[in-house]
Amino acid sequence: MTVYAALGAIEQGLVYGIMVIGVYLTFRILDFPDLTVDGSLPLGASISAVAITSGINPYLSLVFALAGGFVAGMITAILNTKFKILHLLASILTMIALYSINIRIMGGPNVALLGSATVFDPVINWGIPGQYAGILIFAIFSVSVTAFIVWFLKTELGLAILATGDNPRMITSLGVNTHAVIILGVGLSNGLVALSGALIAQNQGAADVGMGIGTIIAGLASVIIGETIFGDNSVLRAFIAALLGSVVYRLAIALALGVEFGDFSFNPSDLNLITAVLVIFALIAPGIKKKMVAR
C-alpha cells in the first residue's frame, strides 16, 4: 500500500466515521436496526450540492443537509412508533422513497461541484495540499461530532435515549415518552449520516444518487471492528472505537486492494467480498481470543 493510498484511506475513514457514529447510535444505543442510512447519505450529498450550486455558503449547506437527514430519520421512526411498522421495513420504505427524492432534489442522477466553493477552500488557501486539507477538515468534524454526541448522551435527554435502548419498559414506567425519544434518536443518527454525505460530496466534487449503496454494511463493519480492537467499556470509548474502527476498516480495504498473488489481485468490484470477510473475522475474533486465553 502506497503512502498516497494510506492517506486516502485515513481521509475516507474520518469522513465516513461521522456516518459510523450515526449508525452506532441506532444499532447499539437505541437497538433500532435502521437501513435508512443508505438513502440519507446521498440525501445529505444532494442537498449540499444543490445548495452550493445555488450560491449558498458551503458551511451553511452542511446545516441544510443535517436537517434533511434528521427529517428522513424522523419519518422512519414515526412509521415504526406511531404506525407500528417493523423498524427494518419502515427504514427500507424510507430508503426506497429517498432514492426518488434525491433525484428530484438534484434534477437528475448527479450534480457536479467542479469550480464551486467548498469547506476545503479556506484551508487550501493557507497553502495546505488538498489531501492534507481533507484530512484536517474531516478530523476536525469527526472529533467535534464525537465530542458532541458523548456530551449529549450525558444530558438528561441523552440519558433517556440510553435508557430507552437498554430497558424501554423501565423508562416508560418513569414517565418518559419512548416514542419521542426514538424519533429524536433515529433523526439525530440520520442527520449525522447526511452530514457525512455532504462532506463526501464536497470532497469528491459531485453528488450521486447511488453513492449511498452499501453504506450500512460499511458502517456495521466499522462498528464491529472498532469494538473488537478498541473495546466499548464506556460511552466515550465506544464512540472513539467506532470512529477509529472506520479508519481501520478503510485502511484494511486499501491494503486488501493492493495485495497481489501472482497474476491475481483484488479490484474495486471485490469490495463487498472484502467487507464480508472483514466483518466475519471481526465477529469470530473475540471468541478465538477467549479460547486462546483459556488455554
Q: What share of residues are in beta strands?
A: under 5%
**Strand ordering within the main sheet:** 1-2
Structural class: mainly alpha
Low-pLDDT windows of residues = none
Average pLDDT taken over every residue = 92
Task: Give the CA-CA distance, first to last residue.
Answer: 36 Å
List how many beta strands DSSP finds.
4
Continuous helix count: 12
Silhouette: globular
Number of domains: 1
Listing every helix as H and every strand as E from the N terminus to the C terminus, the arrangement reads HHHHEHHHHHEHHEEH
Helical percent range?
over 70%
Rg (C-alpha, Å)? 19 Å
Largest sheet: 2 strands, antiparallel
Highlighted features:
295 residues, mainly alpha, two-stranded antiparallel sheet, 12 helices, 4 strands, 76% helix
Gist of the model:
The protein contains 12 helices and 4 strands. It has helices at residues 3-29, 37-53, 58-81, 87-106, 121-125, 130-152, 156-166, 168-173, 178-204, 215-230, 235-257, 271-294, and strands at residues 110-112, 206-208, 260-261, 264-265.
